[in-house]
Design a protein that fits this description.
This protein is α/β, with parallel strands linked by helices and 267 residues long. The chain has two domains: 4-207, 2-enoyl-CoA Hydratase, Chain A, domain 1 (Alpha-Beta Complex), CATH 3.90.226; 214-264, no CATH class. It contains eleven helices and ten strands. It has helices at residues 28-43, 65-71, 105-111, 128-131, 139-142, 147-154, 161-166, 179-191, 195-207, 214-223, 230-241, and strands spanning 4-9, 12-17, 49-54, 58-60, 94-98, 101-103, 115-119, 123-125, 158-160, 172-174. A six-stranded mixed sheet has the order 1-2-3-5-7-10, with helices on both faces. α2 packs across α11. The chain is globular and about 60 Å long.
């Protein structure tokens, strides 16, 4: 069974993650298969709009933590194939059709889409705070959401599809059986536009998205190291073993009061 399935509907290309037994968690095999299909979509002159979705109860559960434990290292896997969707070099619009759980790295896949329709049972979570030494500080900024909502996202709270629709993060919320038909309707609308208008508008809108500053990102890099790094693997082991994690926090307790700041880094 292929870990990524595709369908062609004229100029519309459906890319479907297909590891339902792992909630489409992003192991190396899945990441490489996605990179291949996004490259095919980008280069094929007969394809203009993509719909990105998953099989089963999950859109994507994010990092495959069992695979990370087997390899002894946290985070995304190195793959040998360039992925134009992940690198943001894809010039064609992508509609996210979120069919279930979109967690951690799966949430980041949703962020990269241009239009979003979700089933009404979809659940979203920015999971960095549960797995690293810094929570998802930039996601609320990228989504242009108010500070307390961005803080809630960064600290790993879960969001329903209905709440994200109310906050403006989703375009549509529908019954599960209407998910792909609604995404196809949105794609068909895009195909009625002059090709240059569709491509140029998507490109311009992407350039206007809010983002963090270089100085903020340097501070984030420092904070990713500010604590006991062993807690990163402990969080993954506890998840895999279905137990409460035993976190250390800091190698030296006084470090919690000695925080790096923006003033430590050039603007």
């Amino acid at each position: 069974m292929a870990v990524v399935e595709t369908e062609r509907h004229g100029q519309i290309f459906i890319i479907r993650m297909n590891r339902p037994e792992r909630l489409n968690a992003m192991g190396r095999e899945l990441m490489e298969a996605l990179a291949e299909q996004w490259t095919l979509f980008r280069k094929d002159p007969d394809l203009e709009v993509a719909i990105f979705t998953g099989t089963g109860r999950g859109f994507c559960a994010g990092e495959d933590m069992k695979e990370s434990l087997e390899e002894g290292a946290p985070g995304a896997k190195e793959i040998s194939i360039e992925d134009p969707f992940m690198s943001m070099e894809l010039e064609k619009p992508v509609i996210g059709a979120i069919n279930g759980f979109a967690m951690g790295g799966g949430f980041m896949l949703v962020e990269r889409t241009d239009l979003r329709v979700a089933s009404n049972n979809a659940i979203f979570e920015v999971s960095e705070a549960k797995r690293w030494l810094l929570g998802g500080y930039n996601h609320g900024t990228i989504a242009n959401l108010p500070y307390p909502i961005a803080m809630e996202m960064a600290l790993g709270f879960r969001f329903t599809a209905e709440r994200f629709y109310e906050l403006g993060f989703l375009n549509r919320v529908v019954e599960p059986e209407k998910l792909i038909p609604t995404a196809l309707e949105m794609a068909e609308h895009l195909l009625t536009l002059p090709p240059a208008a569709r491509v140029n508008t998507v490109h311009m809108m992407r350039q206007m998205r809010p983002n963090t500053t270089k100085q903020q990102d340097l501070l984030a890099d420092a904070l990713h190291q500010h604590g006991d790094l062993s807690d990163r693997m402990e969080s993954r082991a506890a998840f895999a073993e279905k137990r409460k994690p035993n976190f250390n926090g800091w190698l030296r307790q006084e470090d919690r009061y000695n925080m790096p700041s923006l003033d430590d880094f050039p603007k």
